[in-house]
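Chapter review: from sequence to fold.
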Amino acid sequence: MDYKIEEEKLVFFAFTLAIILLFFFSLTPQPFSAASPTLFSALFFQFFHFSATHLLENIVGLSMVVILSIEMKLKFKEFALFYLAGVYIALPLSFFFPAAAIAGSSTGIYAVLAATLVKGKKYLSWKILIPSFAVFAFSGTIISFFSGSFSLALPDLFHLAGFLAGAVLFEFIHQRLPEALRQAEKQLFQSAYAHKL
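The token string follows.
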């Protein structure tokens, strides 16, 4: 299938999501909190943002991962799967930090980033990929270190969870699952052949 169609889907998704994010920014923020969870906030927390800077960071991040996805020829279905897995990994994690309020789609963005980096490892060395990721993912922690008040920034922990979700899911879909299917197919073929004998 012509990848141009996948490219158009990715661009359309990013453009549509950016419009939705801008619309939700005009509403009263309803972040998800494990201390007082609601179905609405659990489903829609990704669309709310705490500030204009937070919103801008996510729109820029989304644009960057869409460009990377197009370069790595990631299919739209894969992109959507990694994005949603990254977004919703934040929900179970939030129960370990019930006082924290979560909003935004950065965990989904980090999940897609991980997928593109794992797919692109044949083009770039891990010596470049890992430090590059660390700088982006732990920016809050790094800033706190240089400002003299070192602490692990909670958003960085959520970013790491999103990244790991994307990396593990990509590895499973492109490495483990195909291998498991090949083994199952091989066993099925051998079993059918044995019955013929």
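Two observations follow directly from the output. The first strand starts at residue 32 and ends at 33. The two ends are 41 Å apart (CA to CA).
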